[in-house]
Structures are given as C-alpha cells and as structure tokens.
Amino acid sequence: MLILYAAVWCVSLLLTINRWDSFLATFPQFFTSKGIATYAVIMACIKAVHEFSHAYIATSFGVRVPVMGIAFYMFCPIPYCNVTDAWRLSSRKKRLAISLAGVGAELAIGGIAMLCWHFSEDVFMRSICFVISTAVILSTLLINLNPAMRYDGYYVLSDLWHVDNLQPRGFAWAKWWFRRLWSGWPIPVPQEGLPKRHTIFLALYGLGVWIYRLGFYTGIALLLYTYFRPAKLAAAVIFCISTTMFLVMPLVREIVQMKQFAETYGRSARLLVLSVFLISGLIWLFCFSPARISIAAYTEPDSFQVVSVPYPGVLMTSPLRRGQEVKTDQILATVDVSILDRDLAINQQDILRCQWQVDHTETSNKKSAERERARLELSRAEAVRESLLGRKAQTVIRASMDGCILEADPYLSKGISIPGHATLAVVAAQSSQLITGFLPESAVSGVNESDGCLFYPKGQEPVACTVKRISPVREQTLDYAPLASVYGGSIPVTQEKSKRLLIHGTFYRIELVPKHPIAAGITGTVWLTLSTRSRLNLFWDRITSTLYHESGF
Q1: Other CB atoms closer than 10 Å to residue 215's CB: what's the count?
Q2: φ and ψ at 205, to 5 degrees?
C-alpha cells in the first residue's frame, strides 16, 4: 500500500511540475463563501482521518486509546488522540509507526487530491483538490512534522534519537552548556553516560525550541498588530506574555540559579568578565545617541529645455554630449526634413501659377469672377508658404538659456535618421536651488523638515543645506541614471527593456535647499543626522520593515 501511495505522489508531482503555473492559478478561484465552507468541512474530515489513523495503528499494536477529542490552541480548535500508552511498547519501530500514521494518511489524501486536480474539469472541484493538497503539505511540514512543537514530528525525533522526554532533556542540557560556558563552574551534567555528540544535539535542540517559541509568539503578535487593527491590544498582550515567558523569566531564573552556584562553587572570574561585557553591550544597545546616514543625491537645475525634433528627418549637426556648455541662441541641432523641402517647392509653383493668373486675367466684367478666385487661391498659397517656413524654422533648434547639457542620447550621430518628436538632449540652467536625494525607509522616521545637513558634491567643497520636503509615497522608478547601480551609482535598480529603472527596496524622495546656489547636474552624498534614538530601536525598525516588505503582503 505504501508503494502505491508513493507512486501516486511521484506521478502527481511530475504532472504538477509540468503545469505549475496553471496549478497556482487555481487558488484565487476558491475565494467564495461556498468554497470556504466546503474547505472547512473537508479539512475537519481530513484531521479526523489523521487522528483516527493514530488510533487505528495504536490499537492494532495493542495500545489502549482512552480519549479522543478537540482541544483549543491559540484560540483554534485542534483534534487530538491520546496515545500516551504507546510509550509502554518496547519496540521503537512500532512507536514510530504510530507517530507517522496521521502524517501518512494526510499525505496519501493530499497526493490523491493533487492527482485528481489534473483529471477534473469542474472548476470548483479543481479548487477543492488544490486547497486540500496544498493545505495537507503545509500542515504536515509546518505543524505535524515540526519537532519544536509536541506533535508527530516531536515523537518521531524522540524515537529516532532513542531519547525519551526529549524536550525536558534538551532544555536541561542547553542550560548546562550555557552555565558551563558562562561561568566555568564544574556543574554536574544532567545525565551521566551519554556520548558527547548526543549532548550537543540535545543542547542545540533545547536552544532551538526556545528560540522558536519566542519567534512564534512574537510573529503572531506582529501579524495581529500589523494587519488586524481591532486586535492591536491583543497583539500587545501576546507580545508582553511571550517576552516575559521566553526571555524575562528564564533570565531571572538563571540569575537566581547563578547566585546559588556562586555560594557553592565560589566566585568566577569568567562570569565577572562576561557579565561586564554583557552589561556594556546592553548599555550600548539601549543608550540614546544620534546616528548619521549618507544618501545619494543630485542637484536639480532651476529650469530645463528639452531638445526635441518636431518632424522626422536626418540629423545634420554633430550630436550633443553630456556636460557640454551652451549659450543662449546657440544652434543645438539642425534636422534636414526632405518632406518640408518638397512641400515648399510645390507651394512655390502654386504661388507662381496663381500670380500669373492674377496678372493675365482681363479686367472685364465677364472675367472679374475668375480674377477674384485667382487672388483667393494666391492668398491661400502664401498662407501655406508662411506655415511651411515656420515649420522649417523649427528644424533649427536653438538654446533658450545659458547652461549645460544635462542628459544626451549617446546613440546619436551625424547623418542618422530621427523619428518625429524624438528627444535629443536636455539643457539645464547652470545654477541650482534644489538637491534631490533618496532616503531609505529605515531613516524616514529620524528625519524632519527644516533639519540641517551637508551635501558633498564629487570633487567640490561641502554645501550646507536644509530639508525642505520628504515625499510620503515610496519611489518605484529612478529618473536620474547616474545614481543607478547599473551605471555605477548606489541606488539598487533593475533596467527594463524600455530603459526604465525600477528601484529595489523602499526609498523616499527627499528635497533639500542649499544655502547658496551651486552647479546643476552634479551627483554627490548627503550626510544627515537622525533624531536621537537607541541602537536597539533602530535595529528593531530595520527588522520589522524588512519582514513587512519581504512577507509579500
């Protein structure tokens, strides 16, 4: 039977891997009231099968099952089966089979459901099969086989290690290793005769369970606090309880125990030294001190001129280059538009024809109507000529200000064909009254408007400036290429095929006003002094912001 279930799983996994995108696309179809109700009923049945599987295997080995029922853990109903008498069995293989019976039953159901997903054409049934298979896998890996919780995985690990009462022994060895490392006292071991490898595994297991519990309850508190506003008080209570149970109380108990050991074994120089380092570290974490942060920034000019061609043509002048200085009324680009020259030649012929008709039409009453029509056509042709000449003048682009080329298309060359409305370059005024930077999310709360800071342009003296504004919306794209990581800058970006620069991470635009005008188009670094906060507070903000954004919500 096990071979059959394994074959079902192999087939279903191979089919699912080949149709992975379609398999994941099933999930949104399940969010209906009917689907959720059906899912609850089916999962209750699966968990019932899980517990009955424990009971069935246990009774087949002659183990009495006195109680089966439902318990509440973290306000959630969880079915259970009391197979405590399995510890009376001398065969560890039988105990292992009892522990894995529920997991095996769930995995068999999940494999069959995944296989049925491929052969079912009904949308609702496919949704049911999808949720059953994925929920079974997640519940098995995260809960049932998790050795840090007293479920199936805990008892399986106990049997594999041949250690009864695994969790209490793990905690005892973890405390012993901690006390020996901390103090150096010859404290007796919790159990004689165990190999050193087993003691290391037990100590690491006890430490891992302690860290898992602290992280688990803290994670639940953060989840409630972040995504469920009515539950913020409950989240704060859970956080305080978990911190007290898994951090404060163990430390208090250890301090009391250390005092008793000190009375027995005397003072320890190692304990004194480590305590001094610990207290110094805590003071360093909790003390309030101003922090400095550097961000990438650039100077924005007061005014711009976008150099673009209104009509398609051929570039007749040398292309502009970034950093090139220009003067007012200087020719920046000339475009040869052949269609305008053709239209002007045709228009000139029309003007000559209309003028000849006006000059050679007789002035008799009979011919006066034709003469007026010729004059009307002549005026229209002259108006068209003025329009064409105006358009012709637009093909010669001149600078409207003194400045320098801030951005230029590096792929242009003389004689190249240019499409209509193509941007050739951007001319910027030489002076700047604004500095723009990109502030990481972890530093936003420590910067306020009107704060003073220093801007260090590359190769120039620092300039004092003042914070003018911090954008409340995170930046998704970078509009200034020299700051991008793909061009040697410090802002992490990815360049799309359209050359748009997508920012990685969370950054907010910050605007600074220099004390005196400086050159435009210069990159540099701004040093900001954050408001006084403890290092622990800054570290905690960085952790929570990272978890929040990386969670995908």
Answers
A1: 13
A2: -65, -45
361 CB neighbour count, 10 Å cutoff: 17
| 448 secondary structure, DSSP code | -
Strand order across the beta sheet in which 477-478 lies: 477-478, 501-503, 493-495
Spatial distance between the Cα atoms of 504 and 517, rounded to a whole number of angstroms: 32
Residue type, 103: V
The residues facing 308 across adjacent strands are 423
* Rounded CA separation 224/238 (Å): 10
Give helix 33-60 / helix 123-139 axis angle, nearest 10°. Answer: 50
CB count within 10 Å of CB 249 equals 11
Q: Are 440 and 507 in contact (CB under 8 A)?
A: yes
Query: Which residues, 6 or more positions from 268, have their beta carbon under 8 angstroms from its beta carbon?
Result: 183, 184, 185, 262
- Do 513 and 433 meet the contact criterion of CB atoms below 8 Å apart? yes
Report how far residue 206's alpha carbon sits from residue 253's, in angstroms, rounded to the nearest whole number.
16
* Whether the Cβ atoms of residue 447 and residue 330 lie closer than 8 Å to each other: no
Element (H, E) at 456: strand 452-457
pLDDT along the chain (553 residues), means of 10: 70 76 62 67 81 86 84 68 80 83 83 82 75 77 78 81 82 84 78 80 87 76 62 67 75 79 74 78 68 84 77 81 82 80 82 80 61 81 82 80 78 80 78 82 80 87 90 87 85 84 87 83 85 64 56 44
CA angle 211, 213, 214 (to 5 degrees): 65
Q: Is the separation of the CB atoms in 455 and 508 below 8 Å?
A: no
Alpha helices, H only, 394-534: 441-444
Contact yes or no for 51/80 (Cβ under 8 A): yes
Are residues 439 and 470 in contact, defined by beta-carbon separation less than 8 angstroms?
yes
Contact 335, 313 (CB under 8 A): yes
Report the alpha-carbon distance of residue 73 to residue 220 in Å, rounded: 13
What are the residue ranges of helices labelled H in 266-420? Answer: 269-286, 338-360, 368-393
Closest Cα partner for 340 from 308, 311, 299? 311
**CA distance linking residue 196 with residue 232, whole number of Å:** 46
C-alpha 380/C-alpha 360 separation (Å) is 19
**DSSP notation for 227-290:** H-GGGHHHHHHHHHHHHIIIIIHHHHHHHHHHHHHHHHH---HHHHHHHHHHHHHHHHHHSEE-
- Ramachandran bin of 162, using left for φ above 0, alpha for ψ from -120 to 50, beta for the remaining angles: left
pTM above 0.85, yes or no: no
The residue written with tokens 């998790």 in the block is 146
The total of other beta-carbon atoms located within 10 Å of residue 37's CB is 10
Calculate the CA 83 to chain-centre distance: 45
CA 437, 441, 445: angle at the middle one, nearest 5? Answer: 95
| DSSP conformation class of 491 | B
